[in-house]
Amino acid sequence: MNAIQVENVSKVYRIYDRPSDRLKEAIRPGHKIYHRPFYALNDISFSIESGETVGIIGVNGSGKSTILKIITGVLKQTEGNVFVNGKVSALLELGAGFDEEYTGIENIYMNGSILGYTREEMDAKKEEILKFADIGDFVYQPVKTYSSGMLVRLAFALAINVEPEILIIDEALAVGDAFFQAKCFHKLEEIKQSGTTILFVSHDIVSVKKMCSRVVWLDKGVLREVGEANAVCERYMSAQIERTNAENEKLLSQIKMHNETSGIEANSMIKRFPRLDIQKAEAITGTGKVEILSFYIKDKNGKESKLLKVEEEYSFGIVARFHESLEHVIFGFELENLRGVRVFGINNFMEKKYIGQVSNNKVYEALFSLKLPRMCKGEYLITLAVAAGTQENHVVHSRIHNCQTIFVENEGFNIALIELDADTRILEYDNKDIVIR
Ligand SMILES: Nc1ncnc2c1ncn2[C@@H]1O[C@H](COP(=O)(O)OP(=O)(O)OP(=O)(O)O)[C@@H](O)[C@H]1O
């Protein structure tokens, strides 16, 4: 069953060059048109099944908030239809849904009554809401005195504790502090498991990948893609890379970087490298001026391996052919877990091994030797990249996303993403010997 169905929805705004044009058009109905139509959304269709967690992604101004407002009924579409099946609780703009003259408590009851709950029913929910919001006595103060952090705390606590069938969240979590964000993500995970449909707008692609099974990608009001979360997020990130590449290419040509002495070692021996299988890669992007030919991992005996043990030494090699002479080249790779969380990344720029210039039609091998950190046991995905510029400002010439998996063995407790090397001591004191300041 569909919880939300969006059919050919468009939202058109009238844009006037001068404020007076609006008036001129109003007083001469049927005559001259003074406005230009602007499509904030253009013929958007998608549906969300009951129980799904779906993300909406897109750059600023792509129409994400507009579609959420239309789904929640805050805004009326110009064309098309929206069907919503279930009780909706929404967290839209910060403070929306609150009357700022009233206290937090009063707002809790007002919102509850809008959602059809009686005062008694809200009495029962109040404690849970206040506990989650954790804003102390501020709940007795008018909402207009709240900081943005307090507002989002109350709004989130309210939105999740009214047992919605459909929960809609617009980027709101970004406002809270890190502890609150973590608490919210935990709670969202719980809500998701209970079968609530969740629609989630965020610029944080890692969270979207982690939370959502499917993703809707909006681009300048147009639906670019709807599909499996990881795949759509990858293509979205690739598109962002291409966009920033174009911008950085311009910027780098203006910045004059001093040529470092080249750290490249010449090698005339014939070497064999395993061919990189790019068939399984999730996305390949870049200018195409560099072709990544090989990636390999060798253990300390020089044996190739995809089954790695924590705290052992490995060398990671990237081999690439250059189709153009380039300056300030950066070779690097990243490791992500299967939930899309990056565990580590390394490149020669970070390691302060600067490369002055590489020549057209030559092949270069970048070698990274490292001790594998104490990370959680399991499967990981590798992303390879060759870029040029600096860490902050670079053009990606080739990026092969999630092209290979490795398996990490860890005989430890495996309770978190990484384990620490800590010097742990326990000291004992007599009660009388301590002062707690
Ligand atoms: N009242 C309005 N009149 C004219 N244009 C508007 C109006 N409201 C929104 N827009 C435009 O509609 C487009 C979509 O806006 P929307 O807020 O939905 O984007 P968004 O994807 O949520 O952006 P962000 O990530 O920055 O929040 C933007 O170009 C915005 O300027």
Automatic annotation (TrEMBL):
Keywords of the record: ATP-binding, Nucleotide-binding, Transport
Entries under PROSITE patterns matching the protein: ABC_TRANSPORTER_1 (PS00211), ABC_TRANSPORTER_2 (PS50893)
SUPFAM superfamilies: P-loop containing nucleoside triphosphate hydrolases (SSF52540)
Pfam families: ABC_tran, Wzt_C
Positions of the ABC transporter domain: 4-245
GO molecular function terms listed in the Swiss-Prot or TrEMBL record: ATP binding
Family: Belongs to the ABC transporter superfamily.
Matches recorded under PANTHER family: TEICHOIC ACIDS EXPORT ATP-BINDING PROTEIN TAGH
Identification of the protein by name: ABC transporter ATP-binding protein
Lineage of producing organism: Bacteria, Bacillati, Bacillota, Clostridia, Lachnospirales
